[in-house]
Input
Amino acid sequence: MTANPILLQKKYARIVKLFADEEHISLDTALQFFYKSEVYTLLREGISDMHCRSDQYLAEELRMEYHKE
Output
């Protein structure tokens, strides 16, 4: 299932904001990391309907990926 591209862009923005706030990093840094992340790839490609998961869940997944590096 694919998400509406406009709604998906808004979801990206909310996830990046949550991630930046939780990690105490700038939005620019958070956005750069997001676009290189596996979370973004899964969302963009519609794998496992990741876009259906909550923003908080996806931000946490992003945080776990961030701390893995």
Summary: The longest helix spans residues 5-23. The mean pLDDT is 92. The CA atoms of residues 39 and 63 lie 10 Å apart.
